[in-house]
Design brief:
The complex is a heterodimer of chains A (300) and B (338).
Chain A lengths: L1 E2 L2 E2 L5 H32 L6 H19 L7 H24 L3 H23 L14 E3 L4 E3 H23 L1 H11 L1 H6 L4 H23 L9 H16 L4 H22 L1 H4 L1 H13 L11
Chain B lengths: L1 H18 L7 H26 L8 H18 L3 H25 L4 H21 L1 H4 L5 E2 L9 H4 L7 H28 L1 H11 L1 H6 L4 H27 L1 E2 L1 H5 L1 H14 L6 H23 L6 H16 L3 H13 L6
Antiparallel strand pairs in B: 1-2
Helix pairs in contact in B: 2-8, 2-11, 2-13, 2-14, 3-4, 3-11, 4-11, 8-9, 8-11, 9-11, 13-14, 13-16, 14-15
The chains are: A mainly alpha (300), B mainly alpha (338).
Chain lengths: 300, 338
Amino acid sequence: MEFLGFSLPSYGWSTVLGSAISGVFLGSIYALVALGLTLIYGVLHIINFAHGALLMLAMYAVYFLWSGYGIDPYLAMLIVVPGGFFFGYGLQRLVIGKASHGKDEIILLVTLGIAIVIENLSLFLFSASERSVLVPYDLDGIDLGVTYAVYPELAALGGSFLITLALWIFMTYTDTGKAIRAVAKERQGARLMGINVDHIFAVTFGIGVACVAAAASLLVPTYAVHPQVGSLFVLIAFTVVVLGGMGSFVGALVGGFLIGVTEQLGRLYLGESLGVITISVIFILVLLFRPTGLFGAKSG
Amino acid sequence: MKEFSHLVGWALLLIALAVVPLFVHSARWIDFLEMTLFVAVLGQGWNILAGYGGQYSFGHALFFGTGAYIQAILQVKLGFSPWVAMWFAVSGSVLVAASVGYLSFRYGLRGSYFALITLAFAEAFLVLSRSLKSITEGGNGIQVALNQDPEQAIATFQFNFAGPFLSEYGFYYTIFIILIVAFAITAWVERSRFGAQLVAVRENEDAAKALGINAFRVKMGAICLSAGITATCGVYYVQKFLFIEPGIAYGPAKSVEALFAPIIGGLGTLLGPLLGSIFIHGVGELTKATIGQALGGRPGVDLILFGTILILVLAFVPRGLVGLLQSGWARLTGGRDA
């Protein structure tokens, strides 16, 4: 096949299938990062630019719990998830809510400012060098025939489904979840019903950050930690969120897989460096032609 | 009377900016002044679209990088004179802006959606500039040959070996002239019918449309002007540093740099980007001179500070330094001339 002077290589089906399956694993990681983001967008209607920076911060927390206290990255979830919740709660209550005066564009800029501060604080404190957690099981796994899956990849895949399910149950059946949905739908009405909107905003942000902390635990066994690691995921996470429909958990999960598979196939056919352009192209196309995403309700 | 005092104020400011380097003989401080004006121009480009038009771009590096790459590629690969290349650089960047603007505004992307799509386009160009090695040399970047012949200094638009005065001040006065042009354009925007329509679109797009304003055309005009100004920064960058690579051109750093100065200085004001740039560069130098030394020159300190200042300004001084000056002035004169 030839296209604009590029000739696309042709591969056997097992190579393509192997690539697609590794795309599913990659996609589960994207979904994990995007879940918290989509929750924050769905309720607060804000684009949280600090999401990647918060992921990076949580990854450092997991790393230091392992290097300092020998705590297994998966076990560290018991510490970083509640920690992430309280950090997020405080951040929304004390910084974002206060500084943004309720204007969308200003919130965007405030979260960007937070991202810059967190990223450079990490650069300052921890330097730019990469740190990796060494777990005894990071190379073991199962042979899928066309590709090989290590246990951390399987854990991330399982984790993405579990967290999606947990969020869905939480939002559907708990009082707090119902209050969050009420605030998302009708802010003024929810206030009149006696819901403390500022508190619910902060709780939502806190849960979003808790999700990203869980994602960090699942990521650390396969990804090295450095101050820029979050920014690798920012654009991808936004793409997943918009593709899946802002505020939709199932959409984030499916969107994550779609992006993961597309990226891996893009790398296979267009090469390592040009392959990632598929993400930006999908992002632009979705924003233009279907800004409500695949699973999103009509905006309004 | 107010108009007249404004004119006098601007004249004094420009005269000050024109003579200040003549009292400075250290290359480091002239560099500092050049970068201050450079960021003021970069900020003014962003300010036209975001400050006056309410369209917050998070990918302004797109216009900077495109200008810079065209300037470098035309000179190095096709042997263009820099004085010719720069017109292509600016128009090429405006063309990119027109395409991005057409798509975004035609499909009605507002607010956060517009911010996201500009970010996505900048990212796409970052990937392209890394991948299309036959045009951009990929990650190695493009190097413009250094001219060492003083006779050719003007022809090559390189002042490094241009004789006693130009080698010292050539690039400063280049960016100074660019600044005057960029600020004159912005001053025109502020007073023109177009500018009034742009502000109306910012304040309430639907209401503006109801009044018969063609919001699409107004926003297109703003993004093109904005990109043109931003592209001159790219041209300047290539001539001064004789080098461009994907990260510098299209990386998020330039997009962020473009919005610091106008927000801190005062969004949607003529003076804002300059005041903001002077402020952040001043603070940056101050930290380097004081705590920067004590902390062993570790990276990140200045950006931690700028990010914090950004949040504090958004929280407590939403009208920026210009707003602070205006209310201070009003208090001094008893509220007569606010």
